[in-house]
Structure formats: structure tokens, C-alpha cells
Amino acid sequence: MKPNFKRLASASLGLLLAMSAQLSLANEDEKAEALFETVFNEGLDRSPVFQTYLGMKTNYDQWDDLSPAFEQEGFALTKQQLARLQAIDSSKLSTDNALSYRLLEEQLKQDIAFEQWRLHNYPVNQMFGTHSMVPSFLINQHRVDSVSDAEAYIGRLNGVPKMMKQLIANLDERAKAGIIAPKFVFPYVISDSENIIKGAPFDKSEDSPLMADFRKKVNALEIDQKEKATLLSNGEKALKQSLKPAYTELVSYLKKLEKKADTRDGAWKFPKGEAFYNASLAKTTTTDLSAEQIHAIGLKEVARIHDEMRAIMKQVKFEGSLQEFFVFMRDDDQFYYPTTDAGKQRYLNEATALIDNMKGRLDELFITKPKADLEVKAVEAFREKSAGKAFYQRPAPNGARPGIYYANLYDMKSMPTYQMEALAYHEGIPGHHMQLAIATELENVPKFRKFGHYTAYSEGWGLYTEYLPKEMGLYADPYSDFGRLAMELWRACRLVVDTGIHNKKWTREQAIDYLVTNTPNAKADSVKAIERYIVMPSQATAYKIGMIKILELREKAKVEMGDKFDIRQYHDLVLTSGPVPLNVLEERVNQWIAQSKS
Fold it and tell me: Which one of 99, 365, 380, 432 has the lowest number of neighbouring Cβ atoms within 10 Å?
């Protein structure tokens, strides 16, 4: 038979076109993956602090540049990164890379859009800021494994004056734009700043937190005593001659700025404050919910949780109203450990035991589990007075540092034992440690996604994992179950008070009264919480909005998939792509449901 040259030519052409298309696809994927890595590294190169958080020792003696000029360079870089990204043909990307492309494009566009709000924040406040970052970072992040590491620690101490001058300039720029933290913030930040320069070598009392930390780290080095003495002497000199004058100057400036502060608390007071708050809500919740809608959801959830609490009242045979039950839970000594070293240690031991028990049951709920370990620690004394109730710090990617659940034991009356269980699950396992350690350890996922952050996703997961153990038969003690509800109630109230403060112009006192009336928490808790929401507009709305969406998607999958639904697979779907916006999570769950039916 004679060969059909036309058919062969046609087939060859088809094969070449197919190979060319595959090559183009591969080329676009390769270009995208390279750019994802480049964009992450470009950001990393600009932040010595983030480098240290990741366990790296590059630029180990440096701080981040806080100057407006450096910020503007970063803004210009973001625009360049977006242009480079959009030069890639996203239609030719693999499914995974198409998702990464979409997330990076949205992130860059959002960063550019938010440049107009760059002054709409408080660089120094009672929750966070450069003043408190310096000691907590050096103590918790700056490892000293060698003489050069110790010298880098000293270098960072000597770099504090430059950074504080930049901070003061940034505060001054905001003040000129009419953006000054509310008056209540200043006593906290002034006190915290002054505490950092108390103790040796600043006076003749016990070592200050930084001196104690530096001494401990240097003494642990296997070097001769003369070399240790030289390092310690240089450390003392840097503390006295660099760090102390820098903090003294900051405190002096803050005291002057305090005189210009007022008692207007909401973001509505900012230039274009309403538009800023609406943009912040959209960014925080990754939804298009309005302030009014979020407020209404909060009121509805508060009413539902109150009804569930009344059922527990009946279970424990409490006679009286819900508010009277709140007073009982708030004031009865049986629910609190003493504010003593023994009481605090007992709390830490029992929280650790709860987490260890959950570790042994993870196979019931999860396929993927974190490799990194988790430690439970008390918040350090120098920042415990103003720090939050509890928080989590993710592990170092290189395994040099475990995940840490910090419990604030400054006032044990703010840490009732009936909330201990839910708090341990939220901050530890199966909460933030599962989520953030797994994200850190993901392979074949771009770094910008592994270390990205969507508040509604992360805090929604944390709140969801307070509820999850209930389905496992935990919270056997009805008071602990009340504690779980109390913490969910707290997050539902946040929807009401955050929108109340920043959209409805509620006063600080009005918002505090709402929490005191509607929750069992101590008034001190309510004061600290409202002050937090004031300085972090919209952030508090993320928890309940995120939890509602994660539960809603889970229930949808259970109904539509029937016997094919596996909660372990659902959790894997939520956790093994890194943080994503809620709308993207919903799309992924819908795809999973559709695939189960095909």
C-alpha cells in the first residue's frame, strides 16, 4: 500500500501543533512559577525582620526600613510585579498555577488600592507596634548560636535609634493628616515603652528583660569567659547608649502627642473614614457583606447563643436569669486559679494536657498533620499587661522553632478555667497550629501562598475548631461547654461592636457596656477587647464570618455528597492549599462536590 503523504503530513502537523501547545503551556507554567518565587523573594529581601521570622540569618543585625521613601519604593515594586504577572497568559496555566496567579493578582491589586489608606493606622498602640516589637522580637526570634549571632543582636540594639526616629516621623506625618490614636492608647504605650528601659543595666535593680535575655543566650555559648565578658559588656553598652536614648525620645514624643489626642474612637473620624472602613471590611472578611449586614448577623448570632446558654443553665440547675448566670460564672472563685506562680503553672500544665489529648485523636478528623511541635507558654512579663488574651506564633520553616501558643496570665481573673479548653483548641490543636504549621510545611505551593494571610480564613478556622471538639464528644463538663459558647458569643458580639464603633459611631463606653451586658466575661476583658477593636478596624469581624462560611460549606458538602462525604477529606481541602479568601474556598468546595458526582 502506498503511503498517504497528505494524511501523514496532516498528522505530523497536528502532532507538532499539539507539542507546541504543550510547550507553550509548560513555558507559561514555568514563567509563572518563577515569578511567584521572585515576587516572594523580592518582598523577603526588603524585610530583615521577616527573614529572621523564617529562621534565616541574613541581614541578622538589621531592622526593617520604616521610612516613607522605602514604603514608596515598595509601592512602585508592587506595580511592577503586577505588570510582570499580567504579561503571563493565565489561560495557559495549570489548575494549581491558575489559582496562584489569581490569588497573587488579587493581592497585588488590593495592595495598590490600599495605598491611598497608608496613613489610616496607628503604628504604635496597645496591641502591637515597633515599641513592643523590638523586645519581643529579640527575645523570641533572634537566636544566638554563635559569637556572630550575639554580635548581630548587639547590632540590632544599636540600630534601634534610627528605627525609632523613623517611627516618630511616621507618627508625625499621621498627626498632620489628623490621624492620632485615641487618648486611652497613650498610657499603655508609654508605660510599655518605659518598662523596656527599667532594670539593669539602666538602673541597679534586676536585669531588664532584654539584658536577661542577652545574658542567658551569651552564657549558653560554648566560648571562653573572656569572650563572653566582652559580648556582655558590648551588649550593656548598646542597651545604655543606643536603646535607652531611643526609647526616652519616643516616650517624650508620645507624651506630647497625647495632648493632641481625643476620645473619638471610630474609623469614621479618619479622612474618608467611611470608605476606608468599608474597604477594610471587604479585605478582612473577603466578602461583599456591608457593615449593616454584618451588624445584623451579629445580633442574630448573639440571640441564638444566648438560647443555647439557657439550656446549659437548666442542665446545671441554676436558678435565675441569664444575666445572673453570667455574674455567677464571672465571679465564682471555683472558675479561677490564683494569680500566683503556682496558679499560672497549673493553667499552663492543664492547657498542655488538653492539647496533648487532642494530638492523640487527630486521625479521627485529619489526613494531613503538622510535623512541627507545639509549645504552651505564658506571655512575657514586659508585655503581658497590654497584650491580648491569647495568641499563636507559627513555627520556623526550617524547624528551628516550634509553634507557640501564648496564654496571657497577667490577670488570672481574665482566664476562667471554663474557657481553657476552647482557647487551647483555638490557638493550638486543632486550631491555628494545624492550620499555620501545615501551611508552612506545604510542598509544591508558592511561598507567597504558604505565608499569605486572609484573616477570615485563619480566624474562621480557629473559631470553627473550638466547635469541632464538641462533635467529638469533648467538653464533657457542661461548664466547659458553656465556656465554648461564651467564646463563640464573644466573637458574635464582635460583629455588633466593631460595626457599632466604626460605622454607627458608638462610643468606647457604649461598646464596653454592650459586652458587659451580653457576655459572662469580666469587665476588664470587655475594656481590653473594645480598645483592641478600636485600634484594629474590621479585624474582629473575621472570626464569626469565617466560621459561618466554613460550617456552611461543610454542611452543603454533607447534604450533596451523602455517603461520599468524609470530614477528613473536607479538612484536607480546607488546609492543604494554604490560606485562601472565603470566595475561593467556596469555589474549591463546590468543585469537590461536583467531582464526587461525576
Answer: 380
